[in-house]
Design a protein that fits this description.
By secondary structure, chain A is mainly α. Chain A contains ten helices and no strands. In chain A, helix 2 packs across helix 6, helix 4 packs across helix 5 and helix 7 runs antiparallel to helix 10. Classes of the chains: A mainly alpha, B alpha/beta. Chains A and B meet through helix 2, helix 5 and helix 9 of A and helix 1, strand 2 and helix 8 of B.
């Protein structure tokens, strides 16, 4: 497997030569996936807190549904978003297909259930500790929810990382709604798929290494951010 | 804390709607993969942009999917290789008119062991008969692409129905040409590919062209502007300019001038 050893060298030279195309692709990957995760968090945290704290009919069904939707197949989400955004589809007039926005929408749909389901678990667990206290003080549900989200913010950061992992690694949805257009919608995963289809396995694998390093850097950055924030808050 | 959340939300919205739209003077070409994977567009499109200032965004998928996408109006120009499907596209009112653009040919590639002994032959029908008699592995696109349609037409001419052996020696990958070549090379199967994809393919290992030169293996590419009467959002002016440029002497010369590894991949034949 000469390709394998070639790939290491290629990955290193790609990174150190600061290849302009590669930087563009990395930047778009980050922009799409980070935007999707932030949007998904804006949807997922309140939804998770609601299912953790509030009592309403259908709560268990919602919980099970959210858990099941964590396994949404990216290609199905891609297809649904394509059908909605296609010029022949209901939202076609917006002209969003084959744009980074379309990719953000698709990844948000993929990631939101993961963030909602995991944050529900996190918030439910700490809610058990405070439940009696909250009730004795007659604190309204929405205040309880915001307090719990704030209190579990470090754990929720990890939840966001799980969502980011899903977003940055998926190819099925973005390749359908983005179209893998050079200099417009090409991201790391679609570039890897393209090079594989060209039979350039060494370059494809090298891009795979770069993607791994990217994911590692994001995780390391969040980890150190979290550590210093903690230090500050206890200082 | 509240103002910070609001700011974050605002920033996200900005990043969402900021520069996500394609530039105003741009078109989307729904294309077959061979023209993209072989680097033809990387060569042609900068020349076209220099002449006209128009950005061409290429969505490279199989011919079947490209036509489907264009039928949904998700493109301004269609560039594929399946003449009868292209003509139907125009007859159904989705295309303005179809023009021959360029051609090359299909070839059969296989491993050096050549268990069906097709190497050196010139007849595609003959090769397929031998492959089926020997039950030699054959990887098919199976994705309704131009190459797949051509392959199925050849099977029909040889009066063999390979799909009854699907999953045994006849392998339908249901994916693009590159993925199918990877599958063939990885499993010792024969396959049929357009010459441009084969020449630019980098994972050939010990595979080589074994059957070529049959007139049945002719591969015609066509170009069609999507009909603005069906699809109101078509960028008419730019799409027409692109089609005209590709068919013009300048575009045709540029197609002929494109070389990969010293070989000409596409032969212009617009009339």
């Amino acid at each position: 497997m000469q390709d394998f050893s070639n790939a290491f060298g290629l990955a290193a030279s790609l990174i150190f030569s600061a290849d302009a195309d590669l930087i563009e692709i990395i930047a778009l990957s980050l922009r799409v996936s980070v935007s999707a995760v932030v949007l998904a968090a804006l949807i997922g945290f309140p939804l998770g807190a609601l299912t953790a704290v509030a009592h309403f009919p259908g709560r268990q069904t919602l919980t099970v549904t959210l858990n099941a939707l964590m396994g949404l197949p990216p290609v199905v989400v891609g297809l649904l978003v394509y059908m909605a955004l296609s010029r022949a589809g209901p939202l076609g007039w917006m002209g969003l297909l084959y744009s980074p926005t379309a990719m953000i929408i698709a990844q948000t749909i993929l990631v939101a259930p993961i963030i909602a389901a995991l944050s529900r678990q996190v918030i439910e667990d700490i809610h058990k500790e405070y439940d009696e206290q909250f009730r004795s003080l007659c604190i309204p549900a929405h205040r309880v929810m915001t307090a719990l989200i704030w209190d579990s913010r470090y754990s929720l950061l990890t939840v966001m990382l799980a969502g980011f992992g899903r977003a940055i690694a998926e190819v099925g949805a973005v390749i359908i709604v983005g179209g893998n257009i050079d200099h417009l919608t090409r991201v790391m995963t679609t570039a890897i798929a393209l090079e594989t289809s060209k039979g350039d396995l060494a370059l494809a694998l090298a891009l795979g290494f770069v993607l791994l390093i990217l994911a590692l850097s994001v995780n390391a950055a969040v980890y150190s951010l979290r550590a210093s924030a903690r230090r500050l808050s206890y200082a | 804390m509240k103002s910070r959340t609001r700011l974050a939300a605002l920033l996200t919205l900005l990043s969402l709607f900021g520069d996500s739209h394609a530039v105003a003077d741009s078109i989307i070409v729904q294309s077959t993969t061979s023209t993209a994977n072989s680097g033809l567009y990387d060569y042609l499109l900068p020349l076209f942009k220099k002449d006209t200032g128009i950005t061409v965004n290429v969505v490279a998928v199989g011919t079947g999917q490209a036509i489907k996408n264009a039928r949904n109006c998700d493109g301004d120009v269609l560039l594929v290789h399946a003449k009868s499907a292209e003509q139907k596209f125009v007859v159904d009112g989705y295309g303005v008119s179809r023009h021959d653009l360029m051609y090359n040919d299909f070839v059969f590639v296989g491993p050096p062991t050549d268990s069906a002994r097709i190497a050196g032959g010139r007849s595609a029908i003959d090769a397929l008969s031998k492959i089926s008699t020997h039950k030699a592995r054959f990887a098919s696109r199976g994705d309704n692409s131009g190459t797949h349609k051509k392959e199925m037409a050849l099977w029909k001419k040889s009066a063999i129905d390979p799909t009854s052996a699907s999953g045994s020696w006849y392998l339908e990958t249901g994916s693009g040409m590159g993925a199918t070549l990877n599958a063939a090379v990885g499993s010792g199967a024969y396959t049929m590919t357009d010459r441009a994809t084969w020449i630019s393919f980098k994972n050939k290992q010990d595979y080589s062209i074994q059957v070529e030169g049959d007139s049945e293996l002719f591969n015609q590419y066509g170009i069609i502007m999507v009909n603005p009467e069906k699809c109101g959002q078509v960028n008419q002016a730019a799409a027409r300019q692109f089609v005209d440029w590709m068919l013009s002497a300048k575009g045709q010369d540029a197609i002929a001038a494109y070389r990969l590894n010293g070989q000409q991949l596409f032969f212009p034949n617009a009339n």
